[in-house]
Amino acid sequence: MAVPTPGSRVRGSQTGRPVMALLDLLGRRWLLRILWELRNDARLSFRELRERCDGMSPTVLNQRLREMRDAGIVELEEPGGYALTRPGNQLLEALLPLQRWSEHWQRRMQKQAAAEEKPARKTTRAAR
């Protein structure tokens, strides 16, 4: 599968708007996980990346790393392994607000679930 590029047709967009090309790339299986594992200036070998990604198949990891290199997000440094490029680090920084939002969302959902559970407990006790 070709690397999505801004200005070209991509999944979900006939116009190839830059954000749609990026979402197409980020939506590929395992890509976000690889990006996450390379955070904090990590330099990981192929084997280390595979282990951190729950042992994904080597074929898929190779394909994603190739796509990420072609997109300028990851580079292979000798020695040391794979690392994020400056644009890759900028992308990761751009995604951090989504992480913070998701943590707030998780807390909201947990509170909502706890609130829904409380009346059910009261009803159960009253029925006894």
Automatic annotation (TrEMBL):
Region described as Disordered: 107-128
Query: What is the protein's name according to its record?
Result: Transcriptional regulator
InterPro entries under this entry? ArsR-like_HTH, HTH_HxlR, WH-like_DNA-bd_sf, WH_DNA-bd_sf
Identify the residues that the record assigns to the HTH hxlR-type domain, covering every copy.
17-110
* Organism of provenance: Noviherbaspirillum aridicola
Record Pfam families: HxlR
Entry keyword set: DNA-binding, Transcription, Transcription regulation
- High-level lineage: Bacteria, Pseudomonadati, Pseudomonadota, Betaproteobacteria, Burkholderiales
